[in-house]
Amino acid sequence: MNKLIFVPTPLTEESPHSLIKRTAQRHGFSTTGKLNGLCIGPQTFRSISLTQDSDFAKLFVAEAGINGPRVLEGFYATIHRPAQVRRAVINDIEIPVTYLRVRSGAYCDDCFKQGWERQIQDFKLAEFCPYHLKKYLTYCPECRMPIEWWHALDGKCRHCCAILKCQPCTLDMCRLERMLLEMLRARNQLGFDRLFALTRQLGYKPEKPTIPDATRRMIFIGAFSIMTDDSRAILEHLFKLKDIYPDVEKRWIVARFILVATDAMREASRIFLESKNQSLHISDHSHEPFLLTLRQLRASLNLSNGQMIKIRKNTPFAFKKVNTCFTADEATVLAKKANEFLLADDGRLPIPKHDLWSSAKVRHELSISPATLKSYVHFNLLQPYLGYKRSSFFFPSDIKHFSMLYEPVQNLSKKTGLSTRKLRALLNSLDIKIIPNFEVKCRLWLIEKTEVDRIITASKMKSKKPYLRLVLPRIELSKSSRTDYRTIHETAKELQTCKDNAVAIIRKNIIKGVCLGKKGILLIPITEIQNFKNKFMTTALAAKAIKIHPTRAPDLLFGLGVHAVTGPMVDDTRYFIYRAVDILRVAKLAKAENPSEHLNYYSITSAATRLHITTETLSKLMATGLITYIQGKVGAYFMPSWLDNFKLRFVMPSELLKLATLPTSMTLEMIDALRAIGIKPISFKLDDQYFHVYEQAVIADSYDAFKKTLIDLGKSKKNKSYVKHINTTPPDGCTPVKNLIKSYNISMNEFSNLFIHFGFINVIMHNQERYLSENDRRKCTFILDNYCTRTMAGKITPGGYCKITFLLRSGVLEKEQPTPANFTQTTLISRCKLKKYLDSLPASAFTNC
């Protein structure tokens, strides 16, 4: 027995929902749900019923028998494509189902009286019935409840039972629906595709509707205005929007259309912005806010997605969803924040860029070099703010405070008239702190300005002391006996020191038998010089004896308790001189060191390098007392045996991470995992931070568990992502750009300007390395095999780059264009023509070059 007595025959332009309603009415059902429950199953009608694969379509076709294909044509066919929204086919036109009323309904009382409804009602864009000039009802005027497609079989509201009556409209009001109907009848697929694309660009997303009906209607009108490609129609629509929203700025009205890149749209926008307000005398101003999408705002403000994310974080709209719209007032706030963000170098700087000083201006104000400024930043004397490409900027107030607080040692040297060497001795005698420390180069020294007056006063007092002349006997020497004496300059040279040190030694009566010759020349006996060399050592000889760098030797000897006989800290002379006995005594301390070691004492920097740790980590180890060292006046020093002993006893967490190829971000995770298996670190609290060191013996006792724990950590998700990032293989068939650069002896800058900058080839970035596909590599090699740039030609041509320029101007060589002109602006020269020119030159031209 058949389920249906009457099977409906589809009418021209009839909606599938109308077929279902007619069937329910003809069989005497009061609701569509009863027809569905009796003939199909519960709740089926709530799913999509418009398509040919719906349960209603299958029921009707099965009941129609031989008329099944004709009945099936009354439902919409569907098309499924990968990564696309399902589409319904209406009059051979593909329409995304998101633009159709799948569950909701649109009611026209005249269509109800005729007994069937049209396809135009299924479009969300349709708000008026073009057949009867009535406004569709989407909700009940009495109870404001929505009308679904399966409601109103009897012309009444399902909720309040009120009779549904539609308001009439004029032809002009439903002009857009009539245009939509014409496109549908003309099967204009391109027109529909463009309409849907324009509505999206204007801010309407049917799958995520966040805009009111009035805004949707104006977007629909605007889209049809743009489809006319008439700037006057678009301009009229812009003025209409301005009249509806009189308080909204013109730039925000134009921003709604900024994603539409047509000549007519650009022309209309330009005229609209330049013209004065021209009212169209529309009396009913909209109470709905003027809305813009985030994408429209980004394009209007010329911002990238990343920039907009950072800007929104500094506004009250940080937690607003991406798909929500913004009012004109909110857009103004975002525009203000965007302006501040761009002035602050994309938010990298705390205040606008023009209110800060660049590195060049700071160097000019302080009269310092780039290296000196870098050192001041390194020692935290100045605080930089990094802008684009990590360029440094500074607060002017910080620079002014710095110049008021500190005095460079060069300026102090000019004020006192003392050399840096003598000034250093004076500073030591006055116990004045040098900033940042004594260990840095003299040109980086800074003195607090509060100490400047004291230094100048002390320097004047020191300069007023009378010069102590040497009281020496005079002697008349013959030419033969003159060979037994040396002058002061010859003595200084033989002792590998300077004149000041030699005079200081004579003053202290260390060298005896000195006398005055003719014209007051000091004469020193050779025997006394030899005795001095046997009993004393200069800094260079002392450094060689104890195997340390000469510049570090005075500080180390100070730490070992060896005092100099003369030197900068003793009597303002240039070099230190020590007793040989003291140096030999110190040298015996390092007697147990390996003779193959280049140095017996390492500075903190060299020691950190040997231990494969940073200087900061080594400083912490020194504070914990786990490593032995000698503390000088300026720095610390380490014997190789002390460093090797530390490596045998202890291991740093960073070394364990490196051993297991784990990232440094997993340090705490590794410490917790090792603590769980009984391997506890030696922990110290330094500067409110914990510092950890492991004992090698503890790890060796639990080596199997230790090894398994590190393997498990290597399998963790955090480490997998790290390894995947750094160890992924390069793309198949790709060639590194650096290989081509090396093969053809071309600079990266030239290669980029020739091939990459204007889009002739595409570069693949992988692990911060540039690669070329096989096709792009062939294109590059073909051009580089047959052509060369002016710089490349200048490297092999006598006269260089200037000669190549002259040959091009004189016509001997010609500019070649193997690539389209819009893909490069680099001048190329044929290698064949260049070879002919080089072959014509005499051999002497190359030898002279």
Tell me what the structure shows.
The protein is mainly alpha-helical and 849 residues long. 47% of the residues lie in helices and 10% in strands. The protein is built from 42 helices and 28 strands. The strands form eleven sheets. The chain has a three-stranded antiparallel beta sheet. Strands 8-10-9 form a three-stranded antiparallel beta sheet. Mean pLDDT is 83; it is low at 462-468.
Percentage of β-strand residues: 5-15%
Query: What is the radius of gyration computed over CA atoms, rounded to a whole number of angstroms?
Result: 45 Å
Number of helices: 42
**N- to C-terminal separation?**
107 Å
So what's the overall shape? elongated
- Contiguous uncertain segments of 5+ residues: 462-468
Mean pLDDT, nearest integer?
Answer: 83
Question: Taking strands numbered 1, 2, ... along the chain, how are they ordered across the largest sheet?
Answer: 1-2-3
- Can you count the beta strands? 28
**Biggest sheet record:** 3 strands, antiparallel
Structural class: mainly alpha
Helix content: 40-55%
